[in-house]
Description:
The protein is α+β, with helices and mostly antiparallel strands. The protein has helices at residues 3-17, 94-129, 135-167, 217-226, 372-375, 387-393, 395-414, and strands spanning 33-39, 41-63, 69-74, 81-82, 87-91, 170-172, 177-179, 189-190, 198-213, 230-235, 238-250, 260-267, 279-296, 301-303, 306-312, 318-322, 324-329, 332-337, 344-348, 359-361. α1 runs antiparallel to α7 (395-414) and α2 (94-129) packs antiparallel against α3. The strands form four sheets. A six-stranded antiparallel barrel has the order 2-9-12-11-10-13. It has a four-stranded antiparallel β-sheet with strand order 6-5-3-8, with no helix packed on it. Strands 19-1-20 form a three-stranded mixed β-sheet, with no helix packed on it. The two termini are 19 Å apart.
Amino acid sequence: MRIAPLALSLAALLALSGCFDDRTPKKAVAAPVPVTTSKAVEKNIPVVLQVVGRAEAYESVTLKPRIDGQVAAVLFTEGQHVKQGDVLIRLDPTDFSARLQQAEAAVARDEALLAKTRADTARYTALKNRNFVSEEKVNDTRTNESAAAANLRASQAAAQVIRLQLSYATIRAPITGVVGARLVFPGSAVKINETNLAVVNRIQPLLVNFSIPEKHLTRLRAALKAGEMKVNARLPSDKSQAFDGKVIFLDNAVDTATGTILMKAAFPNAEEKLTPGQFLNVSLILDVLENAVTVPNVAIQQGSDGNFVYVVKEDNSVDVRKVEIAASDNGFTAISKGLALGDTVVTDGHLRLTPGVKIRNRDTNDERPKNREAARPRPTRKRTMNLPELCIRRPVMTTLLMAAFVIFGLIAYRALPVSELP
């Protein structure tokens, strides 16, 4: 009877051993990584220097009164386009009109006095020729005539000053452009050369000023000597619109505080899409690399050792190759070192790549069935589940079964005839 527990224990061990699969799994072969590739081609790539600039008016005038007075009328609309000579503001001319009448009366008085002194001089000169008056009397009349002539010229000059002051009561646009906001209103008191009346900006053409690091100064001067230097500007909020201009100014000294040099470019701005004060992304073309080896920008990857690309070899495996970038423009990057014309580089799918990994080009047609037979779903076959698979798929049952076998083994062990063994 003691042999029965021993047999049950052996059967439990055999059953548990069946839950373990002694088959060694075969190493799976990694499938090729789907990627997108592109070949290195020759292109003319401009060497572009990108900086931030600010637009400013080609001409800007702040109108100030040239006389003291009071605003009588504001004749412009805010934001109005004006031409040179257009009347913008009128000051009260009453005071200056009265002064002009007074000055003109003084001129008329002095003209009458001059005419009288001239007549006296002529009469006394004739009497002196007859010896009726002395030479001294004739000299006195000539002196009076000269004084009257001087007084007349002074009165005429005073009248001219009053006329100028009266003309200053009418304020006109000094340039053609756009007038800004109204800074004074009818009834406002203005003071000579102090009160701001309005601002007129000329925005056709428009200037954009920007600063360039001094390390590019030699290249800038060479480009300016070679001819007209082109500039491209874009709005930070709308990069789809580009504006073309040309450099018209290079400062004569480097700013010692920032190590940059000031430049200005002129833009036609015919449609007035640019406004003074706007920030712009300025692209300055310093040079053009002709027949440069180029790849798409997305092919360039950043690593701890610098820029690199994944190059596809003949056996469809990839290799990491370091590259040096010469310039980048319009989605393409010029490579100065590291690639040759015709090399194939990976442009998409970099995350799963490592050196030596096999790749395949993505093709939507490869994923479609070539015929209807391939498109039909294959019938699934029913297969029997073996004991190891049953243990794996039913972990709770396996655990309970193992616990039961262990408890049973412990109970059976106490009944084994251990003392009878030799």
